[in-house]
């Protein structure tokens, strides 16, 4: 995840060194603690590793064994390879925190049997990113229409995930084009899955053009606020904390297991395997730092 090299470079979120990074893991259950009834040794699972929340390196992913809370674990079907599905965990929690918690867009919880759309629309900026691709699928499964952005090469991918309209974020008319599309809808919120100056500026300009203020969830803090544009930074772990535990319960214990089993939820963007073993993690992080498009870098252990 981009957050890993950013933490390594800037030290954000850490209070002690050394520390083990990594939020996404997939593998076999080796042991279960007292009171855990959902899993047994040998189960195939994905996990959102919560070391950044607990500040305990035992709860991070970049090691041979990791200890995780069962609140952030889902079984996976035998048909899905670990390398394929490991792209999902952090993106799931981050997308859900922005879409479904009370402090953000507060959408209805998603259903594997996608409900009929009721006319409400959200904008997801960065639809081919890890969080964006996941957010599109979750939002569509909650019954809202989705307008998104991506490079032209990724438009087909983003549409296949459930976006109703996709715009080229580099187009000189992207602000005008999206505003025109949104003004005909019941526009209720924005999820900025990129959260850099360019996306903040574009979203702010869209809201100005519409003369409308809606909730804006962002994956990184923003320091650019206006009368209509005030991004609210998403904390992934909020879905297992008060007052939003119901979100984590529904997503990780009900929706994701059922959606993966039924094939209705895609593991996107595709994995790009960039190494084998702990020795290759740094090289994979360096590759992520340089940038990849519509791919998520994976190291197998």
UniProtKB/TrEMBL annotation:
The keyword Oxidoreductase applies. This is Enoyl reductase (ER) domain-containing protein. SMART domains: PKS_ER. InterPro entries: ADH-like_C, ADH-like_N, ER, GroES-like_sf, NAD(P)-bd_dom_sf, Trans-enoyl_RdTase-like. Keywords: Oxidoreductase. Pfam families: ADH_N, ADH_zinc_N. Belongs to the zinc-containing alcohol dehydrogenase family. PANTHER family: HYPOTHETICAL OXIDOREDUCTASE (EUROFUNG), ZINC-TYPE ALCOHOL DEHYDROGENASE-LIKE PROTEIN C2E1P3.01. GO terms for molecular function: oxidoreductase activity, acting on NAD(P)H. Residues 11-247 form the Enoyl reductase (ER) domain. It comes from the Eukaryota. The lineage of its organism: Eukaryota, Fungi, Dikarya, Ascomycota, Pezizomycotina. The keyword Oxidoreductase applies.
């Amino acid at each position: 995840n981009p957050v890993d090299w950013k933490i390594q470079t800037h030290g954000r979120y850490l209070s002690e060194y050394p520390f083990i990074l990594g939020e996404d893991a997939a593998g076999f259950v080796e042991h279960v603690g007292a009171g855990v009834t959902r899993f047994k040794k040998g189960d195939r699972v994905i996990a959102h590793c919560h070391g950044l929340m607990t500040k305990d390196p035992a709860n991070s992913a970049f090691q041979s064994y990791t200890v995780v809370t069962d609140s952030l674990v889902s079984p996976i079907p035998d048909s899905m390879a670990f390398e394929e599905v490991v792209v999902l965990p952090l993106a799931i929690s981050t997308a859900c925190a922005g879409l479904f918690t009370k402090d953000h867009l507060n959408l209805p919880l998603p259903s594997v049997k996608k409900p009929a759309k009721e006319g409400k629309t959200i904008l997801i900026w960065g639809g081919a990113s890890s969080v964006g691709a996941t957010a599109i699928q979750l939002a569509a499964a909650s019954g809202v229409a989705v307008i998104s952005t991506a490079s032209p090469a990724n438009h087909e991918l983003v549409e296949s995930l459930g976006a109703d309209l996709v715009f080229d974020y580099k187009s000189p008319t992207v602000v005008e084009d999206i505003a025109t599309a949104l003004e005909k809808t019941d526009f209720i919120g924005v999820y900025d899955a990129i959260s850099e100056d360019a996306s903040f500026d574009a979203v702010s300009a869209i809201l100005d053009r519409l003369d409308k203020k809606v909730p804006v969830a962002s994956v990184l803090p923003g320091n650019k606020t206006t009368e209509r544009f005030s991004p609210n930074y998403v904390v992934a772990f909020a879905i297992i904390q008060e007052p939003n535990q119901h979100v984590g319960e529904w997503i990780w214990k009900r929706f994701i297991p059922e959606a993966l089993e039924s094939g209705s939820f895609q593991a996107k963007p595709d994995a790009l395997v960039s190494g084998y073993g702990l020795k290759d993690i740094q090289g994979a992080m360096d590759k992520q730092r340089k940038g990849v498009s519509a791919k998520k870098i994976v190291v197998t252990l």
